[in-house]
Amino acid sequence: MSPGAPASASPPATGGLSDGEAALRRQRDGPNELPVSRPRGVLRLAREVASEPMFLLLAACGAIYMMLGDAWEALMLLGFVFVVMGISFFQQRRSERALDALRDLSSPQAQVLRDEAVRRIAARELVVGDVVLLAEGDRVPADIDIVEAANLAIDESLLTGESVPVAKEAASSSGAGDACRAFSGTLVTRGTGRGCVSATGERSALGRIGQSLAGIAGESTPIQQQTRGVVRQVATVGLALAAVLAVAYGITRGDWLHGVLAGLTLAMAILPEELPLVLTLFLGLGAWRLAREKVLARSIPAIERLGAATVLCVDKTGTLTANQMTVRRLWSAAAVYDRRPSAPALQEELHGLLEYAVLASHRRAFDPMESAITAAGQQLLAGTEHLHAEWTLVDDYPLSPEMLAMSRVWQSPDQRDRLIAAKGAPEAIVDLCHMDAGQGAQVAAQVRVMARDGLRVLGVAQATFGAAPLPGIQHDFDFRFLGLVGLEDPVRPEVPQAIAECRQAGIRVVMMTGDHSATAISVARQAGLDADGAVVTGVELAELSDEALAARLAETHIFSRVQPDQKLRLVRAFDARGDVVAMTGDGVNDAPALKAAHIGVAMGARGTEVAREAAALVLLNDDFASLVTAVRYGRRVFANLRKALVFVVAAHVPIVGLSIAPLLLGWPLLLMPVHILFLQLIIDPACSVVFEAQPLEPDAMKRPPRRADQRLFDQAVLVRGLWQGAGLLALLVALYVGVRLLAPEGERDDLARTLTFVVLVLSNLALIQANRSWGRGVARVDGESGREFRWIVLATIALLGVVLAVPALGRLFSFVQPSPILLLAALGGSALSWMWFEGVKWGLRGRPVR
What we know:
Elements: H1 19-29, H2 42-50, H3 53-67, H4 71-96, E1 109-114, E2 117-122, E3 131-135, E4 143-155, H5 157-160, E5 166-168, H6 171-174, E6 181-182, E7 187-199, H7 205-212, H8 222-253, H9 256-270, H10 274-292, E8 295-297, H11 301-306, E9 311-314, H12 316-320, E10 326-331, E11 336-338, H13 351-359, H14 368-380, E12 392-397, E13 405-411, E14 418-424, H15 426-432, H16 437-452, E15 456-465, E16 480-488, H17 495-504, E17 508-512, H18 517-527, E18 535-537, H19 538-543, H20 546-553, E19 558-560, H21 564-576, E20 581-585, H22 591-596, E21 599-603, H23 609-614, E22 617-619, H24 625-665, H25 673-692, H26 715-742, H27 748-771, H28 783-805, H29 807-812, H30 820-843
Parallel strand pairs: 9-17, 9-20, 17-19, 18-19, 20-21, 21-22
Antiparallel strand pairs: 1-2, 1-3, 3-7, 4-5, 4-6, 4-7, 8-22, 10-11, 10-16, 12-13, 13-14, 14-15, 15-16
């Protein structure tokens, strides 16, 4: 037998499996659980961090220092390396642990028959052939063939999207098919049943959908692809230039070891190692901020991509709606009541209708419609004589295929007669009340009106019966028709505002649901979606060619009665049009489309584990408005990331220039690996924190999404960064030349290097300040971004002071202690650089970083 094929579902005996047989089957088939994604291990993370090119170059520099006999310098350099590696490892490790808090079991316990005894065991221990007992409120723990059923109904909305429970029967009475099967993950809402496990784990219906996700390949976001491309191209050029520099230095000066050191320094200066680091920090911190807003980022790069989303495909049940039925309308021939937040008190004429609807429901209700009726009775009939906690239930007549209505018989303490309450399908209640054709037509017309408003309609009737023995069927009661109860799965209160914000931000919202068209249109109107256009059903969708579907997409906002594979087709069709597609959902049926979308967004509280595994983002509190927050963060990440990249480009220009200038001008080495490492350790990662914390521009959510093909690295970023960096390089070269001309012979090289590096570090701080905002002349130092920047300034100046003041560190950097006057001169030089940066900002203010 292949591992993927289920074993025989027939139990060996009516007493169920033995413990020994169950253990053998569990060993063969595995536990009854879905496979989940595993985080990268600690060793793998450490290996990936240690294999970064920058760290390898620094290790090579340390080895050269050892060969030159500078053991102290080598050890200090390697110490800095391990600090930077530790920071990178900690950040990635924290991201890997993000999803652990969401792990839960959808069905932790199951009631089974083992060794002729009823036991409650962990659902993961179930095996094919186990006899499982089902009751109201149970989560079905595996796929089960039903052999006994008593008034059994199961909520399969997680699989089908339908919020109405499905009646189930034993296989002996209904033959084969879904009507005699219970599926893993669904919820028993009414009755009891007994069945035999036919499939567990990934072989269940729920598991097969999960397996289908493996065939949908994940793809890197454009920002990741661009970053890898830029790093690869620049690294290739940088390593080639470094090799040329090393060879030229060795030939012209005869010092090959220092030539190799100069080449490695240039490689470090050119290698854009900051780009993946900046990207990681931005997206990691963005994920952390979203987590505080109850949005978990399972795929961190999706945060940035959500800012470019042009189409949001949403499921109805559990996404736009609360997946919880509520009474919306009461109707009788005498009165109508629409239940709204501002609605007045329930009219007296409708008290009896709601009273008997409550009496016709179970007091301990699991069926969502019965729960809604009971809740409405407690609210609307509070303080009246129409709630009867003291009445005694005498008997009930359950729903059956022959009569789609149920009746409950009650005994009042102060009456001899029995009181009977009935509710069910309106046509069944009309039949029970023996209404004539005219009366039946009137009720049917009202049912159609309520159905067009997206309501589920139940009829309610009342009868009395003497104390004699009760009749065998409901038809023998003399029922009187009371009216209709309309129920709905209400739209979440935050949804209309969230959809309005999406529309304002240029994001198109499309509903894809397995529900009826009338229900979908009603929900769309309440949610603020465009409900006036055409509605495409699943049947129509199946008949449309890809070309015809592409033509319909532009004008269709509602797709009803769609199957899971059709949701997947729709997502791919929008993708083919050039849209960036975000997809929300909570059920297993949504999982393939969630994974195929550019950004899959799952509901965390009510959603299934399969949906969460397939999605890139998880709304932990099921608040649809959190999705708008995620879009806002996505746009903020992209805009601020471009500001950070302008800084990175501008900061690299003087570093590269100061690495090449000594060879061209015959100077001694100006920058060494430790200098570049100082800049990386303090300036580059820290500035990313500052730029990441910059607030979003006020009008950012009133602009359309950026183009899908807009590159992170474009001409605007490069021009701005090159202009800023070139001006700083010219200033630093002039400073170095001036100090060498004026300083004493014995220390002019080290003093010139010291002051040049001090100005370079302080100018980098000015560069951060200038790039924090492109809309104002001077970025205000306020909010979280301002706090971070102040800490970075203080930390950088303190560390720079330590390097200048401690002789051992000064020797490592080849520094001498400058006089206070020279330090003031360095401060003035950094002020000049800041003026240059502001001038570039003013000159290029027509090219904002977005």
